[in-house]
Amino acid sequence: MSSSSNTSIEKYMKQEIFKFLEEFKVFVCPTGDGENTQKNAKVFEEFVKKRFISLGYVELPLEGKDKYKKILTTIRKNYIDCNSISNEDKTECVKLLIQQPYGSQAPPDLLLIDITTDRIYFQPIEIKTGKKVATWNNNYPKHDWIYIFSGKDGVTYFRGQSLINDEEKQILEEHKMARKKLNEEHNKRLREINARWKLVDYFKFEHSAGVNYMNDNECSKRETEVSDILSRFTNFSIQNDTKTIYNYEKEKKEIEEVKDIEIGTDEDDTDTEDDDTQSIINYNINDISQKVSEIDIDKQQIITLFNNNVKGVEICLDDQNINHCGKEGHWLETKMGIKHNANNEPDINGYEMKKSSDKTTLGDFSASEYAFSKKNKRNIINLLNNWTDEIKLSRSEFIRTFGNPNLNKNNRYSWSGSCVPKYNNWNSNGQILKITENNDIIIYYSFSNDTRSIKVDFPTFLKNDDIVIALWKFEKMKPHIDNKFNKKGFFICKKIADKYEKICFGKAFTFEYFIECIKNKKIIFDSGMYDGNSRNYSQFRGSCFWNELIIEEY
């Protein structure tokens, strides 16, 4: 493989790794005291781990450490001064990620290992949290280790030597060793007198006042150094993996053979060095790039918001309109940082939010036209029913004609409940919901299918069959569904008892899928229109529909 090819791959890797690292910055880990700080740090560590797994590293479970015990022991002896060891035992090639490889109380938090044919490359990574600076305890930064820090101002990353110079390290190390020696001497004296006590020395390293990782002139430089070291680490395994090189050479040979057959070989028209390089990149980098794009940082941010603001939190509706049936939904939106709006777009980060219920609403979509629509707003219904604008039906008359009185509401009429039609079934009020070939949704009224005695008093223009009383045009509904649900999908906040405890993510779906689910009755039209309220409440809802789309639960 030529030196220029290596240079091109390294340049490409730097670009990809830089983008990969920058995506850490969407995560904001709230700081707190005591248990909350530890909880937030754990959430951030899991987030970082999943990001590195997306690069193709296989997480090694705790019980799998024994298989690599010798390698881990050798790495621990060398991880301060170098980044690779010899693959003496010819361990099979694999990319591993090990969380807390030496136990929960010993660094590092994560260890990346690339086992190639001849060498074993490793990169220790420490996860740090704090307000402006990290808590170091009794371990100061190590030379080429990568540190990823989340504080109140955001996320940054750096390698150890960026924060501590050799002179500072020498003084800190001398102090550490002096304390250790003094501790050993005093414990020896205690043992000699059979004391019931022993000394357990604990101290920690801290930054001087005024240090702030996010707000100094070196922040960008430190991050670039991490990008460089991580891209080199990733590139080492590519350059030293003979299997990868063999695959590249094999592919190149096959391409040349095809060229010989199809167009002949021309010494003046051979592949350029750039083409060769791109083939290598396609073999070795494409999978990484794809997985980086697949990881959803927006989803992690939503999970973090849910964990910090909603999960296990008592639902307080004191400041909500007590008469508003959607008050809990508004509480949930506020907690998730979503502004109340009627925009035709996902609620947050490309996802539509829903709260679980027996029938969860997809949306309140007023029809393109109703039989009560006013002049120049009822053109299609007029055409289909052979009506003119001279035929008038008020909204109240519509509800009283096609709806039912509610005995529990002082006989208030509403177009809701049993009088609202289901797909392809006539109900007792003489109504049916159908879908046309071009996916318009239409509700028909049939005088002959209406079982109510009150129909004899209807005006003449309603004493017919197949009268269109509501119509949702394909052109109206498709943007509603696709813009809301066909970006990244949706998530549902679910309760256990009286508190939200789970967040579930579901697949994106299209308007065409929405239509299919109306036909198989997984989605229903669930009108809540009633006399005395100008809102139409033309809602489409689903029950099992949502659960069938859920693919992740946290």
The rounded Rg comes to 33 Å
Most strands sheet: 7 strands, mixed
Q: Judging from the principal axes of the Cα atoms, what is the shape? A: elongated
Rounded to the nearest angstrom, the distance between the terminal CA atoms is: 46 Å
Describe the structure.
By secondary structure, the protein is of the alpha+beta class. α1 crosses α5, α1 packs across α7 and α6 packs across α7. Helix content is 37%, strand content 20%. It has 15 helices and 21 strands. A hairpin with a 5-residue loop joins β11 and β12. Strands 1, 2, 3, 4, 5, 6 and 7 form a seven-stranded mixed beta sheet that branches. A four-stranded mixed beta sheet has the order 8-16-17-21. It has three domains: 221 residues, no CATH class; 142 residues, no CATH class; 104 residues, no CATH class. The radius of gyration is 33 Å and the shape is elongated.
Topology:
Blueprint: H1 3-22, H2 35-53, E1 58-59, H3 69-78, E2 84-86, E3 94-99, E4 110-115, E5 119-129, E6 146-151, E7 154-159, H4 166-192, H5 219-239, H6 242-262, H7 273-284, H8 286-294, H9 297-309, H10 327-335, E8 351-355, E9 360-364, E10 369-370, H11 379-385, H12 395-402, E11 404-406, E12 412-416, E13 429-435, E14 441-450, E15 467-472, H13 474-485, E16 489-496, E17 499-506, H14 511-519, E18 523-525, E19 528-530, E20 539-542, H15 544-549, E21 550-553
Parallel strand pairs: 1-3, 5-6, 8-16
Antiparallel strand pairs: 2-5, 3-4, 4-5, 6-7, 9-20, 10-15, 11-12, 12-19, 13-14, 14-15, 16-17, 17-21, 18-20
Helix pairs in contact: 1-5, 1-7, 6-7
